[in-house]
């Protein structure tokens, strides 16, 4: 039981931490991707996607179970993180942050 609880706490911590962790690095990332004027969209894309998907995950958790729903959310979150690391432009980065938000909303 302790292992399950620890895993759940870690997954929830990653989702909550990712909502705010981008702020210190955002100017450097936006500068390297050439989109300083689009910085607010990076944070907004993540938060809007995470907020919109929360009730959906609730319904999916009721229908298919909490564990499979959480596993799918983690896969989406990690996929979004990898895509963010591979982004070559600011619009790509914003879109991939939205993908990451879809996973972080669980």
From TrEMBL:
Location, primary (coarse class): membrane
Gene3D superfamilies: Multidrug resistance protein D
Annotated TM spans: 42-60, 72-94
A Gene Ontology cellular-component term: plasma membrane
Pfam families per record: MFS_1
Domain Major facilitator superfamily (MFS) profile intervals: 4-106
Taxonomy, superkingdom: Bacteria
Keywords: Membrane, Transmembrane, Transmembrane helix
Example GO molecular function: transmembrane transporter activity
Membrane topology: Multi-pass membrane protein
Subcellular compartments: Cell membrane
Protein name per UniProt: MFS transporter
Species the sequence originates in: Nonomuraea turkmeniaca
């Amino acid at each position: 039981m302790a292992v399950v609880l620890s895993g759940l706490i870690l997954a929830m911590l990653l989702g909550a931490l990712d909502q705010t962790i981008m702020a210190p690095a955002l100017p450097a990332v936006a500068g390297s991707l050439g989109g300083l004027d689009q910085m607010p969209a990076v944070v907004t894309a993540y938060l809007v996607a995470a907020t919109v998907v929360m009730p959906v995950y609730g319904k999916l958790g009721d229908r298919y179970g909490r564990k499979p729903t959480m596993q799918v959310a983690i896969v989406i979150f990690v996929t979004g993180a990898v895509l963010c690391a591979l982004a070559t432009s600011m619009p790509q980065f914003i879109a991939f942050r939205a993908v990451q938000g879809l996973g972080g909303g669980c």
